[in-house]
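Supplementary Text 2. Reproducibility record for the structural model of the 234-residue chain.

All settings were left at their defaults, and a single model was retained for analysis rather than an ensemble. We include the record here because the model underlies the residue-level annotations in Supplementary Table 4.
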Amino acid sequence: MHILLWAVLGVLAGAVANHVADRLPPHLGLRPAPQCPACGTAYAPRQWVALLAWAAHDLRCHKCGVPLAGRRRLFEVWLAVLFAVLAWRHGPTWWLVAASFHATVLSIVAITDLETRIVPNLAVLPAMILSLASTALACPGCTATMLLGGAVGFGLFFLLWAIYPRGMGFGDVKLAGYVGLIAGFPRVLPCLLAAILAGGLAALVLLISRRVGRRTYIPYAPFLAFGGALALFL
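Retained model, structure tokens:
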């Protein structure tokens, strides 16, 4: 039963995450409520949750008729499934709450990097602070391991960025630090290795298929988010 309830919570988290992903990259505040990107008209309350709007056949702006972005529904489904799997993996524990929070933040930065090539500081930095504070309260003995993991993640990717700054943005360096905090030490090492391998494999496939060139920017945050997600299941 708790898995189903947590999946519903994932849908609601997806609705909030959709709004955050829309507002943070252009440096807008979280107010006003969700609105049509074409004309700025506020969505009806039932349209705030895209799956609810889909069930009600209300998927267009009431003023200009532009449809709600398909990403909104996909994001809610994605987080519902992810929350359900996390609930199955961890049960009703404090770590389930922490893992679900991390999964939401990682999903937000993956989407914003794919759509806008921005890893928002206002998503990553508060998440890092909140993670440290909550861990210090819930598991004081875990704090040192967590800090070491964050330092390793940040330091490794800072070195990569310093050697070849065109290969990634500094937002990816901060995100690697966040992944390190999630994973702790030494789990940060296989998690970041998985992210690097996944990113390299994806780049190779895109190059071979000629969908990108050698100088094409490839968003890296989704691969770091993948590495961070691995830590949530270890």
